[in-house]
Amino acid sequence: MAELNLEAKLKLRLKQEKIQLWNEPYSNQLQQPGERHLQELAERYAPLLGLPAAEVCGALEAIRVQAVNRGKGNKTFRETNVATLELLLPRDSKKDPKTKNHLETKLDVQAQELVDRIGEQFGLKYIKLILNGKTLCVDQRLDHQGVKNHSKVMVLKVSDAELKQQLSDEEEKKKNNNESLQRTHKGFQILSERDGSEDTTPFLEIADQRGNPLKIPHQEKKALILAMGFHEKGRALMKKKQFDNALCHLLQADQQFSKCGSALLGSVDNFAVLQLDIVWCYRALEALSCLEDGRSRLQRAEDCFLQCYGERQQRLLMIKGNTGREEVLFLRLYLLQSLLSYIEGNDAQARHQLSKVESLYSRLCLDSEKMSQLMTLGFSEREARLGLRACQGDLQEAAIHISNQRQEREELRQRERQRRSSRMELLSSLTELGFSRRDAARALQQADGDVDRAYGILLDWSQVSNNNSEGGAGVEEVMQQEVQQLLYLGFERGVSAAALRLTGGDVQSATQLLLDNQGVLSPELLSMSPPSTSSSSTSPSSDGPSTSSTSSTSTSTEDSELVKEVLEDLSVHEEDYLDLTLEEENELITTMKTYLRRHTH
After folding, report:
1. Which domain holds residue 76?
2. Helix axis angle, 2-16 relative to 583-598, nearest 10°?
3. What is the pTM of this model?
4. Structural domains in the chain (count)
5. 153-167, 245-259, 520-534: the lowest-pLDDT one
């Protein structure tokens, strides 16, 4: 980091003085260093930076070499269209941490070719490439994915086990190129499509901070569940210090969050926490030359916290009653901002942010004796830590706070049990009328729990489905429009749908049938078969958000295993993301203080 800091400061001074190290007198015609002139420049800059002249001279030479190589790369690119890429290799693959690794390539080739060459040259078997926080698709061209001359490409290792099995579906292959990602994606996809129609299978709901379910459009809900699932898996891997694999999952979460509306992202802090976690992984992987992406992610996190919590966290205070637990997020935000400012050569800003970090750390670093006393009372370590932070270290208040939290969680579980029980009763009342649990659940969801409205919707679906010979998406929507036309003419919903069923979906014929029968269809008419237009049959909810049921026991078992696997990564505690021991943060604070002390003069 110190090298990056020094180079950033020197580049700024060179730019201000319009000094070009790649030209004479600092580089001769053979592009060899003009050692005397570089030494003179170093001796002039050294007192200003408070560093030895030899160290400054070494940094100037490194900048000069970079500039010369960049010039050569530009010339090569102009003449041959061969680009030079800087590779950010895994730490254990670098022969010399201070040496930058480059690779020349055409940009009109697929990323797979680059993957193969990097693997061969650096002895890496399974890797994925990251550009500006996005995974490069191996079956797409480099230039189509934003790769340019001098782009910095991050190389992440992926374990052998994670690449053993590829999903057969081509779309899934593009999105996920390792088994871990695929299984996470598939498991949470199954969960995102469950609607609670089965009492014995787990399903997920999106709730606010008080545990109340949120009404979210299906596609956004599905994307949000996938995003949060990938995020949870990534966080679980971070705890195991598997930062390469964690980053892959976090970037997938980021991709899913992009499918959610801005209003939704602005109302939850999950998106902001994800941005922090991604940059924290960059730090752990020593990929801090991903500076531009890291800076923009931290800005998004700060903006999102501001929107969610309020300018002075007043919204958070109103919802939760205190702000102590969330302060760990701001500590990590300011710490990462300090780190990036230092790498950019802005020591003053780095010190300013670090002072905010130290102030927060002194408040959030807990008394071990108080922790022990709370744990003696039967509280868990997590409860003790979160409770003390919520109550600014007050032992008595923390004990009361934790007890209240336990009671609130139990009340929430009771409400959830009652809600589920009520839902099951409504489902049963509809299934007794002959509808499938799956369709009944979808209808209840669409009717916001109104059983009468749900019955009307189910009647429409079941009658309309008999006329559907296409089996494609959008049928229900079209038939609903035809039902609406008959409703507009004054006929009731049930008989309108029945008339459409009997007339093959023809509005004019259905209208005439209803007029001929004064808007009432006899049991004899209702029992008649509709006109057949095709030998194929479709299910009533073929266009709905469902996972197809299957008679295959093996598929069902596989789904159950996937769901069980991904649920294991979900934290049982809703505030797990706030439960930071601050050990890693303390290490980075110490490192930052050491680096900044070095430049105090």
Report:
1. 1-80
2. 40
3. 0.66
4. 4
5. 520-534
